Hints:
This protein is an alpha/beta fold. The chain has helices spanning 6-14, 18-22, 39-42, 45-65, 83-88, 135-151, 177-185, 241-251, 289-303, 328-335, 357-372, 374-385, 390-405, and strands at 95-96, 113-116, 119-122, 167-171, 190-195, 203-204, 208-212, 226-232, 252-263, 268-269, 282-283, 339-349, 417-427. The strands form three sheets. Strands 4, 5, 7, 8, 9, 10, 11, 12 and 13 form a nine-stranded mixed sheet that branches. A two-stranded antiparallel ribbon has the order 1-6. A two-stranded antiparallel ribbon has the order 2-3. Helix 7 links the parallel strand 4 and strand 5. GO terms for molecular function: methyltransferase activity. Residues 79-109 are annotated as: Disordered.
Amino acid sequence: MVLFDWVSAAARCTGITPSELSNLEHADGHDVAGGSLTYEQISSPELQAAYGTVASAATEQANMGVVIADVALIGYEDGNGDDDDDASMTDAGYESDASTTGSTSITPSIWDHSFENGRRYHKFHEGAYHFPNDDAEQEREDMKHSMVKMLCNDQLHFAPIGPSPQAILDIGTGTGSWAMEMGERYPSASVLGVDLSPIQPDWVPPNVRFMVDDVESPWLHPRDHFDYIHFRHTVMAIKDWDILLRRCYEHTKPGGWVELQEIHHFPMSNNGNGNGSHAGGGMMPPDHPVAQYWRRIDEGLARLGVVGFGQRASEPWSESGSGSESTALELLRGAGFVEATGRRVFHIPIGPWPRNKVLKGVGVYWRTILVDGLQATALRPLMRGLRWERARVEAFLVAVRRAYLDLDLDDNEGSQMYMPLVCVYGQKPLNGRLLS
Length: 436
């Protein structure tokens, strides 16, 4: 089975050649000189139809080539799987993860879901994560993974983990795309993806497995075990970064690495800084609908206990580099990862405004992801956190959706809007000792 490659498909649709993609670097997040596509080309019926063909082909291949376990918990002990049916789906290089055993047996209730406002949510440790896990959200998560790969020149990580890591942990693995690609890229490694939702495929590379667990609960993994621990898109989920990163330190091998790849969702703009000037690189005006949206999400999550994104995490993922105690690097250093800390910042454009056609494609992807996810992101933070009625939420989203789509207008103050993707990594000292 060949996994569907959104990046290659999007490259074919936008006319980006492999050489153009491989030669691009966005180390500091700035635009790269190169070819361009006009907005008319991006918006053409032919290109839009091509994007639709990509999505349809991906969905069809996923339905044909991936078997989702119906009863067996991925990564846990279960004896109810249908081995005959699984055997008929055997594909070279892949195997079912349903037969692996973990440290405990799990009841079938682990597969239960809760439903609210027409969306499906995880049931295990219900309320720990406030966003849906249904098919629409899974597709959006896969698009987000492909978008980040395009932006980062196909790099899955930036920490220098060496050619032969042995144990890799992916926290908040979601659909498992990153974990499976790491398993293929590093055949020496045993890759474990952990998530609250059992939404990962059953047929995976033989060195990859998945576990349903809450990473903010005590871990059962051995101490000094992992060579590399990876976070991505978890900033709106983690409640206590200090405790979790100290736990990562405890379970990382001396010389091992932890890397955080997180998007700062409060929008910024190259042509507006919130003070009426257009010097560039400033926060969007606070009354802009997109800025209002993310502030409300922040407030709602804070009331639900996710202070890692609310009162505290609006700074860890900022670009200030001020060295304040609440920056991402300071969080890593405070947990003990004091050696060789690194930091990379990428700008994710919102919409097709960049001249460079790779970044233009990234911008189209990212705006689609944001617009498609407006409701999914807003429902629980606004309704449970801020106690809004459903009608008020939907009315609020109308203005936000219009603001995203109006970014194509040249005279729009947010027409060059972007969000920073901040990647930070730190190494546990070779003589690492557990912190008290």
